[in-house]
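Protocol step 4 of 6: record predicted structures for both targets in the notebook before any analysis. Target 1:
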Amino acid sequence: MKTQGASGQAWLKRGNRMALIRRLRVHPGQSRVDLAHALGLTKSTVSALARELIDEGWLVEREVIATGDLGRRPTPLFVDPSRLLLLGTQVGIGHVRVVLTSLTGEVLQARSAGYDTSLDVEACIGELTRTMLAVAARCSKAQRIIGIGVGLPGGVDQARDQLVFAPHVHWHQVPFGALLREALHGTPLSGVPVFMQNDADVAALGETEFNPSPVADPLLLVLVGEGVGAGLVVGGRLLTGARGLAGEVGHMVLQIDGPRCSCGRRGCAEALIGSRALLQEDGASPPAPAVARAGHYLGVLLQNLAVAYDPACIVLGGGTAVALGDALLAPVRATLQQYAEAAGLPEPTLRLSRFGADAIAVGAAALAGYRLTQPSPD
């Protein structure tokens, strides 16, 4: 659709600015000539946009080291990691985690706090706000937070700015974004754009936005913690579903008449793989046979998801996956290999999240960067 007038020109310029930033996130160090060729823009347009973005703190140019070659070499451009920052927040079950990151994903500050899950959602938001402000206070005068991302333990309807359902804390149809913005009103974070999404979705974005790799598309991330969830990024876009409930794979049935799940059904992935399934009454580490069994069922789940989505890469994250490490990963790999050999197909590429226990919080920061730099007007 063609756009006309001042608003159309403004939209086009914003799209070109954000396309330039996103190009440099994937291909850092390109020159203005390289960018003009890659994006189909004139060199003068790229030069003007680059100057604006450098002045605003988005980009930085670095000197080229002299090699003795004749002629002037193009100056490489990079996303500036020092001036504009992102705040990423994880709302977990009874705890919150806040990280301050650069535009390229380096964690600069981090802080955690607990909240009482028996209280209402406002109590959680109050603790989250205090933690966010404590982290934001560590910024220098030369730094500015330009976006806040929130990873939530349930489905999110972005169109309505609502948390649809968070089963482990029994929150239904909560206007979480509006409540958080209200809590931040009058503080140093007042007016900073707030974006929220399901925790597995933001963790998946963290893997693609802060570690861009064209060979990892589509990327499927599965979180294994108290619950089990998945996030899928295809062509740089999240697959969230019509109501924001895509990826609720913890309630896929893996065992007919298996153990009862928190949702009321039997044999769900969460009931077989989640931390509650492995929890010992005395708080001790789960026995090896229990971990091996959970790893087998996780392998079955990943096999089903691999068949459905044919991902280039599967990433595992979440507290349980991080805590158990190779003890869980080994039976997962063995199960995937067994299925692959039976079908005569290559085994899916599998790895742990690059951000470990901070996968959701860092991913939430990536969500803010993702939403702020999308060229489209939405």
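Target 2:
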Amino acid sequence: MFADPTFWVAVAFVLFFALMIYLKLPGKIVAQLDARADRIRGELEEAKRLREEAQSLYADYQRKAEEAVQEADRIVEHAREEAERTAEKMRSDMEAALERRKAQAESKIAQAEQQAIDEVRNRAVDIATAAAARILREELKGDAGNRLIDDAIGSVGRHLH
């Protein structure tokens, strides 16, 4: 029996397990495995928490990016509306200025026409007065004629101007 290797293997096996129980190795191994499992569980929970936090931050950034795009769209739309209002105001101001200039030009033309008519009328009066005076001088002779001519010339000038 002492010469049989199976016996010695069995004795070594029993001694090994007895030593393990004596040194409380199974409890220590279990405690180390439990500690490692707890540490891994904690790391997994931390990783899960970090993942959720990262997803929350990502959702916040997406929401902020959408809000920024919407704000940019609102700004662009507002700028477009403002540009249209400004362009319309400039058009109406330009039309009003053109109407004022047209009215001024028409007024100047009317004044020039009236001035030309007045000048022609005055010139015609002067010519008519000179012609009448010449005709009357040639037709009427003497003091009575001269007096009649002078009175007529004065009254014609007063009536025509």
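Step 5 preliminary note on target 2. Residues 49-160 form one domain. The chain has three helices and no strands.
Proceed to step 6 after PI sign-off.
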